Each structure stands twice: as C-alpha cells, then as structure tokens.
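Hi C.,

You asked whether I'd gotten around to modeling the 95-residue construct. I have! Everything is below, sequence then structure, no commentary in between.
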Amino acid sequence: MDLIRLLIPPQLDNETAADYLRLNIGQNHENIQWVAVRPDSLINESNVTGYELHASPTRSPIFNTGKTSRTNVRNFMARLLLKMTYGKNGKRKCR
C-alpha cells in the first residue's frame, strides 16, 4: 500500500479523509449521514452532460481513468441533496 501512496499522491489524501469520517463521525451516526463521491479525473465543462453512477470502480483508476466534468459532479451532488427527505422517524432518506 505504501507504494501506491508514493506513486499516486491523492491516495493518501483519500485514505485520510475516509478515516476522518469513519473515526470522527462514524458510519452509523444517528444525526449525520454521509457518502463519498469519488469521480474520475476532473475536467472543466460548461454544461451538464449524461453521466452514470457506479457503486465501485468499473475501470482501472491508474491505467484507464475516465474523465468526469466538475459540472456533472456539482449537478449530481445538488440532485442528491434535493432528493433527501425526512421519514416519519425523523431520519433522512433518499427518495
């Protein structure tokens, strides 16, 4: 794992961020729900285009990275927030 951290600088930052969320907020916090959105290589585009969501990588993050526009990431995150509602028990859920 140390070799990956050395060769791919964002790897350590990604691990540190995930550890922070797990250790300081927890995966089952009663008031805070979180999700990690990890797009491929980011590019600049003016308009939202079609995009797909995957639960895990579908290609090599080292040798076959995809490209994702920052506009699409913003669009996805905004849509995700807008779809969140509160259930009868007061917990947030996605519609």
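If it helps when you're writing up: The beta strands are 41-43, 67-69, 84-86, 92-94.

Thanks,
B.
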